[in-house]
Design goal:
The complex is a heterodimer of chains A (about 150) and B (about 425).
Chain A: E1 13-14, H1 19-29, E2 33-37, E3 43-48, H2 49-53, H3 83-86, E4 100-101, H4 106-115, E5 120-124, E6 130-135, H5 136-144
Parallel strand pairs in A: 1-2, 4-5
Antiparallel strand pairs in A: 2-3, 5-6
Helix pairs in contact in A: 4-5
Chain B: H1 2-20, H2 25-42, H3 48-54, H4 57-73, H5 78-90, H6 94-111, H7 114-132, H8 137-151, H9 159-168, H10 172-178, H11 180-197, H12 199-203, H13 210-213, H14 217-220, H15 224-242, H16 244-247, H17 251-266, H18 270-276, H19 279-297, H20 300-309, H21 316-333, H22 336-352, H23 358-371, H24 380-389, H25 398-404, H26 406-422, H27 424-428
The chains are: A alpha/beta (about 150), B mainly alpha (about 425).
Chain lengths: ~150, ~425
């Protein structure tokens, strides 16, 4: 079950916090994904590094078939989000979170992660409170550790 | 009498749904066509055979042939090649970039579908602007405005042109002699006006002009062989269009023959190519033809003829100028294809009432083409650049379009009107 391999000390952010605060938290803890919670600590969304970085790297790059021919990104390299953009609440960037209960099986959790392209999977109680988070590595190693050694 | 009422009711209900955009236009026309044939069978004025005969396969064939050629060219990177070529040539100078990107878009949209051109050029434009550190606004709006303007110049430039020339019997060369000269003037005026309206944005020097020179032109083109072959076929097709009157073949045959030649030469995986063809557009056209055919079969157009018998006494020159502005006004708010299809029977009615309709067809071409520039939703190209601009720091708003796009429509329509009055004897032929 996922509760045996998840991290219980979850770094999360309230929905009312600003994008700048979220960026600070991501930098301070060196993490790639940030669950967003309401006042009661219930999971309401998730923000990942890529969502925050989209403020700096324009969305347009998704529409181009390739950027190999761009050898110098010019002004894009030094464009920083404006103060106004950074003071928006983090909820504006948050996506709907995919989460699982503590009793979720390891392979189901891993499959959900792959399908939803997540790096970390939040774990919630029945009432929706965030209690843990499992990374791909947490889950993957937990699954691999179940492989029996033929010698034993 | 009842059949006229039923046919008109179905036609108007369809147009209403299409104009209000309450229902997808292809679905509206599809349902309308089915209802029209059904009503025709009940009231005994229209049947399946007549419905099939009402479809103008010349229009559909021309569109399909060109769509296949574009579908082959699209993934080669040729469009981004041209945009990057223009950017490098501009050396990062804003006005020069505007002129070059505007010209590339115009020339492409004279021969290929406007929307495809804009869809493929606009993202590269935004990339170039981001690299330069300038607002993409003037360039994106110029591309939409100039591609709509350029599309008026040729028979294959814009779907209304195909429709009108199919009914009016205009050839590719008729467009080159009757429309192209006027469009050249209108295009130049549009460009100068855009240059003036965006003078503030264009006076800001880019922070990073050198990075543009580092764009690797070679790497933009993914498939040299395909590009070369499609361009050769396209070139031959255009030459054939010049002499299609003399060859005694339809433009549709030329476009389909070109598509066939390109397919046999390149032998691509057909599924991926046919997927890029805009079938919804073709179905929309086919079903609209069936609806208009039903209207005709019910005798609804005879009523129009008597109605317009009186309009025939109006000065034909004045009537044409009014038509340009009327069509442009409606096309600014709704798509110009349904506007054109709705007006075709009206002009046919005037012809039956004894009026020389040739100049009126040209008025319809000019109005439908330039009207799209009026508002943010006036043409699909406008909607495309607006959506793309929302991914930049300076999104295009409706208010902005009214201040910077609407003047372009007014000026081009004015030029078309002056041309119409001055060149009226030419347009009679």
């Amino acid at each position: 079950m996922i509760k045996n391999c998840m991290k219980r000390n979850v770094i999360s952010i309230p929905a009312t916090a600003t994008i700048r605060e979220a960026a600070g938290l991501v930098v301070a803890h060196h993490i790639g994904q940030l669950p967003v919670t309401d006042e009661a600590g219930r999971l309401v969304g998730i923000v990942d590094l890529q969502d925050i970085l989209s403020l700096e790297l324009p969305d347009i790059f998704k529409l181009l078939p390739d950027v190999d021919f761009v050898h110098d990104f010019g002004a894009v390299e030094t464009t920083r989000p404006t103060e106004q953009e950074l003071s928006q609440p983090i909820a504006t960037l948050a996506r709907q979170a995919t989460s699982v209960p503590e009793t979720c099986g390891l392979l189901r959790a891993y499959a959900l992660m792959l399908k939803h392209d997540l790096h970390d999977l939040p774990v919630v109680t029945d009432s929706g409170h965030l209690v843990g988070i499992a990374s791909r590595v947490d889950l993957g190693t937990a699954i691999l550790s179940l492989w029996k050694d033929p010698a034993t | 009498m009842i059949e006229v009422l039923v046919a008109v009711a179905i036609f108007l209900a369809c147009l209403g749904l299409i104009f209000s955009e309450k229902l997808n236009r292809t679905i509206a026309a599809f349902v309308g066509a089915v209802l029209m044939v059904g009503a025709g069978k009940i009231f005994n004025f229209y049947d399946e055979t007549e419905a099939i005969a009402a479809i103008d396969f010349n229009t559909l064939g021309l569109l399909l042939g060109m769509m296949v050629l574009v579908a082959l060219l699209e993934p080669t990177g040729f469009f981004q090649y041209l945009a990057v070529w223009a950017a490098r040539l501009s050396r990062g100078k804003p006005v020069r970039l505007l002129i070059l990107l505007g010209s590339v878009t115009t020339v492409l949209s004279m021969f290929l579908d406007n929307v495809t051109t804009v869809v493929l050029i606009a993202p590269v434009t935004i990339l170039i602007c981001e690299i330069l550190g300038v607002s993409a606004l003037p360039y994106l709006m110029a591309e939409a405005l100039l591609s709509d303007t350029g599309g008026v110049a040729t028979l294959v430039g814009d779907p209304p042109n195909v429709l009108i020339s199919s009914v009016a019997g205009f050839t590719f060369n008729d467009f080159l002699t009757h429309s192209l000269p006027m469009v050249l003037i209108a295009w130049l005026a549009a460009l100068l006006l855009i240059r003036y309206l965006f003078r503030k944005e264009l006076s800001i020097p880019p922070s990073n002009p050198d990075a543009i020179q580092l764009l690797d032109l070679e790497q933009t083109l993914h498939d040299r062989t395909t590009t070369r072959r499609v361009l050769i076929v396209l070139g031959i097709a255009l030459l054939a269009l010049f002499i299609h009157g003399w060859l005694q073949v339809s433009p549709a045959y030329i476009a389909l023959a070109a598509a066939a030649a390109a397919l046999i030469w390149l032998r691509p995986e057909p599924g991926s190519i046919l997927q890029r063809v805009e079938w919804n557009v073709l179905v929309f056209f086919a079903t609209l033809f069936i609806i208009v055919g039903g209207l005709e079969a019910a005798g609804a157009l005879d009523g129009l003829v008597t109605l317009f018998g009186r309009a025939g006494s109006m000065s034909p020159v004045l009537f044409g100028v009014i038509l340009i502005w009327l069509v442009a006004g409606i096309s600014a708010i709704v798509d110009n294809v349904p506007v054109t299809i709705a007006l075709i029977p009206v002009i046919q009615g005037l012809g039956a009432a004894g009026m020389n309709t040739n100049p009126l067809w040209w008025a319809l071409v000019f109005g439908a083409g330039f009207g799209g520039n009026g508002t943010i939703i006036g043409s699909t190209a406008n909607i495309v650049v607006t959506n793309l601009s929302e991914k930049t720091h300076t999104p295009i708003t409706s208010r902005l379009w009214n201040r910077r796009g609407l003047p372009v429509m007014l000026v081009t329509c004015l030029i078309a009107s002056i041309f119409y009055v001055v060149a009226y004897p030419l347009l009679l032929k």
